[in-house]
Structures are given as C-alpha cells and as structure tokens.
Amino acid sequence: MNRVCGLAAVLVASCIQLVSVAPAACAAGDSAALVVDTADDEYRYCVELPDDSVSGIELIELASEQHGLDYRLGYGGEAVCMLAGVGTEGDDCFEKYPDYWGYWRGDGDGGWSWSGSGAGSTQVEPGDVEGWSWGTGQDGSSHPQPPSTTYGSVCGVAEETAPAKPDKARHRQDETASAAGSEAPPDGSEAASEPSVQPEPNPEEPSKNESKGERDARARKPRAEIIEEPASTGITEADAERETSAVAVASSRAGDGPPAAGLVGLGAAAALGGAGVVIARRRKT
Amino acid sequence: MHPGGWILWALCGGLVAISTTNPFFLIPVFASAWIVHAAHKREGPMARSFRTFALFGLLTIGTRTALVLLGPVTRGSVVAALLEGTRLAVLLTVFGTFNSVADPYGVLRLSPRRFHEPALAAALALSITPRTIAAAGRVREAQRLRGIEVRRWRSLPALAVPVLESGMEEAVTLAESMDARGHGYGPRSRYRRERWGVVSLVTATAALSAAVVFIGRLVVHDPSLAMSTFPLTWPAADALGVGAAFLLAVPAFLKASE
Fold it and tell me: pTM value?
C-alpha cells in the first residue's frame, strides 16, 4: 500500500514539475493552429480543441467562437465561402471562381500539402496546422500556399495569440500598441501590405504587431458586415439541392480538360489491355 | 524467372497503387497487372486467382462508395470514395497477378533456413486463394459426377464443408511432407537452384524504378498523387508518372523461362 502511495506521489510530483517547467508544451496538448491567408492579410489563430475530434470546418467554427474569425459556409456547411471578410457572400462558394478558398494541411515542418478532400471530412488532431488561402489554381501545384507555419510559432505563446475574447484583447492591444510607440508599425495597413515580412510571433513584440494588423483589418470593415452566426451550417433540403448543382457548375467552370499525358496513358492502358486479351487467347489455343 | 523477381514486382506494384488516388496513374497499374497476368499465368486453377481478386476489387469499390451515400452526398465525396475504392481494387489486382504468376513454394525456397517455419506459414497464407479455388473446382466436379445439383447459392453449404476440410488436410500434408524431408533442420539440398537471370533483374529494376518515382513523390507531398475532389477538377498527369506506372508492364514482354 505504502509503495503504491509512494508511486502515486512520485507521479503527481513529476506531473507538477512538467506543468511548471513546460507550460507551453502542456497547453499545446489540446489546441491546433489555423492560418488564414487572404492574399492581402494573414491571420494566425491558436484554437483550443474540445475533447472529441473536430473536422476542418469545425475548427473554423471554434476559431470564430474563440477569436472572432468571420466566416461563412456554403454547400450545406461542407465548404468555406468566406473567411475574414474575403470570399463570396452567397451559398455558392465558387461564385468568384477561379478565386476560391484553398484548403491546406500542415506537414509538421512548416510546409503545406494540398488537401484532396473537403474540410468537412478531415480530422484535426491536437498539434495540427490547418491553412486556408484565397487565390486561383485548381490544386496544390498552382494554388498559392499559405506562408510557412509551424504549430509552435502559432501556439507557442498561447497568452499573446489566443486572447479569450476579441474585445478584451483589442482593448489590451490598444494600450500595448500606444505604449510601444514608434517601434510598432504606425498602422495596420503597413503590416497588411507586407504579410510575408511579418516576423514569427515569438516572445513579445511581433505577435502584437500581427494582432494589431488583424485588429485594424477588422476595424476597417463596418461591424454589421461581419457574420458571427454560421448561417448555413445545418443541411437543409434546399441546400443539398443547390449543392449538387453548384458543384456541377464549379467543375464545369474548371473546364480546361484532362491533361494530355493522362489521355496518352489511358490509350496505352487500353492497348495493353487489348494485347493482354490477345496473349491470353493465343495461350489458350 | 527467379521468384524474388515476382516478389519485388508485387511489392513495388502494391506500393505504387497504395501511394496514389489519381486514376491516370491507377489505370496504367491495373493494365500492367492484367497484361503481366495474361503473359505469365501458370497453367491450372491458380491462374483464376487474378479474376477472383479483380472481382473482390469491384466489390471493394462498390462497398466503399455505398458507405459514402449514408452521409452528406456531394459529387466530390462520391468521386473521392470511388477513387479510394479503386486504389484498393488495383492493389488487390496486383496481388492477384502475383498469385497467378508466382509459385508460392518457389518463394518459400528463398527463405533462409532459420526463418523456414514463418516462411512456410506465409507461403500457405499467400497461396490460400489459388488452393481454395482449386479445391472448390475439384469438389464441384465430384458433385456433378455424382449427379448432385451444383446450383449457385443453395449448394454453397454442401460445397463449403469439403473445401474447408480439404484445405486443412492439404496444409497438414504439406507440413508433414516437409518435416519428413528434413526441411528446416539439416543442410538444404541445392537441387535446381533458382538464378537471378536477365529477366528477373530487368523485372526487378523496372518495378523498383516505378516504386522509387511514386514513393519519392509521396515523400515530397507531390499534389499529383491525390486527385482534388473539392473542387472537382481533372487530376494532374505527367509523362514521368504515367511512364513509371507502365514500367510494371515490362515483365509481360520478357520470356519467363530465360
């Protein structure tokens, strides 16, 4: 009995030590990073995850709840129409095709790989990095990638990049910004015009700059435009109908036809198939 | 053909198939497996394992797609399910070809003496489909000769019992006979040693090259491997990828006996 208690005490002690030594690592256990690249602006959120697993779409909803990210879904809640005020207003997320929101998934080293499936059917694990970029391009070979991002660069400083409430955070950042004075960029537009030179949000100043750009971007927009409610997350019959027709439209819009190498390959495959039949017949006789 | 050549071919073909959902790559792999089967299938019932595995593949595609219809259906999600089913089907087809062209006991002879018993188990497992097909054919013929009706579904129980029994017996007989010959104990005889001839080497090189191209793309996250289904667009295809997939057809143009 004593031994068990002793073991338990050691375990508890080591847990406490872990928590006190590496708070960031412990906090990292249940959050994921979300990067939104509107081509003009770049937003990074450290999103806390619930106990059960979430999809890519649900991560956006969580980011909206926790950080006030504006978004709008379409196609019965399966696709992303608008993020951070950029995108389409209606339910047809491909209204502005060839511009659309491309869905990327972090590869763990700061790089990105194009997600072949929709964000409604992916699983976000703690420590994952998810990216959305607005632009043209059918797939990962031509669509613009979000800037290189690691989980640690977004969620490493949980206090600064993950304010509990946007309004409160804004207030605090106003103070820090004025306190920082001339060292910080004078206004958000400068930070916004050069998203690529934004430093990684390590310790103090850089993350303030980034949040400031984000705040200004939001402030430029009339508040009424911001959609806080996910207007179409539920799948209604009308949505489902529109969805199929809209996807059909989107794919016909893509319409630059199959690649030549692919067609040649199919032809060769058919030839091989025919040759196989001939060989099999000849062997039989 | 050295059995190792076929092992490498099947392994590399499987790797290529599992690495991609792009139909422009998967269809050439399927066509290659088919023509290799047509050119090199062994005589006897084992040759039918290609057809069996291809049918299993079709079943996989159907099941995978039917499961998607239970959730929210979009064109993209149906196509994605079809492609994932196709990938598994092509993998099964490659395995079916391996079963119909390679001799499982030849594969067994390759194993070092120390691993003889696990290799025997693996050989039995690998050859279960051709052996079951052969046993089913024999039982059917015996039933037909005795005037028993061999209709499709109702005769299944009457067919299953003798087939399972004969499979068991066959495995025991094989193990006993290998024991009696001292397999796994003494020094092995080198009678009719298989050699890595030109054909085996060319086959292995072609298959390995195909696998290297696709595994390399997998490692660098080449977007051409996965077809984008949202938005639904034409998958990418390039001459290198398609050509690499066709490398798996190379053994069909070689004579296995050399």
Answer: 0.57
